Inverse folding.
């Protein structure tokens, strides 16, 4: 059994102030890869009791990390990012579990790089989020990336477990 990321020691070149966020993101990659491994396309898009599918959560993780990193740099979202946001809830079932998990993991790695490259003196610099320009700062955004990602990773793990169990029960009764 693999050790939890936060128990594996400090991540290289990460400020102690941001270490919990970096550990949460490192753990998210591990959990996404484990939960999505061997999911069929059918299981990826199943919505047990109407809950969002694993596919939705993986798309949303990748997209939300990308958008929040954009805000952390003090930038506005691009038209491409707005299009990708709309696509997260699309009924289009493009991609398999490996592809979607890979994209989510890549975006999470980009967040860890951003954490490494963010100087401590920049953490309290003001930032704005969304069209309403809601106030926050770099520190808040970097932590929100971690906690928001973890929230959706928990849903990936739970939903993947449910759809696997449901499929196994159907197979046993057939």
């Amino acid at each position: 059994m693999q050790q939890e990321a936060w128990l594996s020691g400090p991540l290289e070149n990460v400020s102690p102030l941001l270490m919990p966020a970096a550990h949460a993101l490192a753990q998210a990659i591990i959990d996404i890869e484990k939960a999505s491994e061997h999911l069929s396309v059918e299981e990826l898009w199943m919505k047990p009791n109407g809950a969002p599918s694993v596919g939705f959560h993986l798309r949303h993780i990748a997209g939300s990390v990308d958008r929040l990193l954009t805000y952390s740099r003090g930038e506005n979202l691009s038209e491409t990012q707005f299009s990708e946001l709309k696509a997260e809830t699309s009924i289009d079932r493009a991609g398999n579990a490996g592809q979607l998990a890979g994209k989510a993991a890549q975006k999470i790695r980009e967040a860890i790089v951003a954490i490494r490259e963010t100087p401590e003196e920049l953490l309290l610099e003001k930032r704005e989020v969304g069209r309403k320009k809601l106030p926050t700062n770099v520190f808040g955004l970097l932590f929100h990336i971690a906690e928001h990602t973890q929230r959706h990773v928990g849903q990936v793990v739970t939903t993947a477990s449910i759809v696997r169990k449901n499929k196994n029960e159907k197979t046993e009764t057939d």
